[in-house]
Write a structure and sequence with these properties.
The chain is mainly alpha-helical. The protein has a domain of 69 residues: 434 Repressor (Amino-terminal Domain) (Orthogonal Bundle), CATH 1.10.260. The protein contains six helices and no strands. The model has no long low-confidence stretch (mean pLDDT 83).
Length: 104
């Protein structure tokens, strides 16, 4: 069932946070992908502005640097369509951003 799948994802996320030493993070974070977006951006040596430009090219709407800053800091929630656009702009599997798969 779908409920069981979500429980599996939460359990897996908790295990990853423990193994990464992140278990002390506040429970009220706005997203789970912020740190992974930052890591993927830095792996490609992209500035925040360059990533915003890529997102804008993919999505066709403005994506401000302040928005990316809040996402990377875990302050702002991320809509499902934004996760997809960020994965396309970063040329990264969406599962990597969601923490369901390790970087290839």
């Amino acid at each position: 069932m779908l409920r069981d799948r979500f429980a599996d994802v939460r359990r897996a996320s908790a295990i990853r946070r423990q193994s990464a030493g992140l278990e002390g993070q506040p429970a009220g974070r706005g997203n789970v992908i912020g740190e992974r977006v930052r890591q993927a951006r830095q792996r490609q040596s992209l500035t925040m502005l360059q990533l915003c430009e890529r997102v804008e090219a993919q999505a066709g709407y403005e994506f401000h640097q302040s928005t990316l800053t809040r996402i990377e800091q875990g302050i702002r929630s991320v809509y499902d369509f934004e996760v997809i656009i960020l994965s396309l702009a970063l040329e990264t599997d969406v599962r990597v951003l969601l923490g369901l798969m390790d970087v290839e």
